[in-house]
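User: Hello! My lab partner asked me to get a predicted holo structure for this protein. The small molecule is magnesium ion, SMILES included with the sequence. Please write out the structure tokens.
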Amino acid sequence: MPPTQIKPTFSWSQIDTILLDMDGTLLDKYFDDHFWEEYVPKIFAETNDLSDEEARKILLQRYQRVESTLQWCDLDYWSKQLDLDIPELKYKVAHLIKVHPYVTDFLQYARSINKTVCLVTNAHSKTLKIKMEKTALGSHFDRIVCAEEMGYAKEQPEFWNKLERHLGYDKTRTLLADDTEKVLRSANQYGIGFLLFVARPSSRIPVKFSREFPSITYFNELIT
Ligand SMILES: [Mg+2]
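Assistant: Hello! Below are the structure tokens for the protein in complex with magnesium ion.
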């Protein structure tokens, strides 16, 4: 049986700071899935004289080796590893970068009720730049933090300690929304007060609720 939705029960009066993940949470993860699983293997196959299938197999194995680490998000690392200009390739398919429904409405709402809103992403600064150029979401945030600045990925509990010192939030009055359960677990271990799972990271994959954390499909569920 697929898990049913655990509905969020917090009230906004309990929260001062909202931390939002980028890929899959605010932006459609279809772009990233397509880029790494289809587009890069296709280019890698062409430049290395492999079949698409062989290239895909090789790359998926290499991705797995660095999963949940900063290296995984480091475009310079992949440019070197694969001998391809990864940022340039991202620009080539940048038309696929899309903001999820109701995200802009929610960001405006969060402002209107005086919350501090921060974008907190594992994405590399070059990815962040492409995505902010493409979506123009940047002006909605009080702060934008890339995990590379903290020296840890969000899946590592040390990340949250560093982030707290950097942003100066009260963790008991902070909400984190993310589409990766491993990130929510690490934030939970650190003591972030309110955790929320985003159950539809990609527009091409059906909704899947978390068994552990309250979930939303779209951010309009938080506009009260
Ligand atoms: Mg994400």
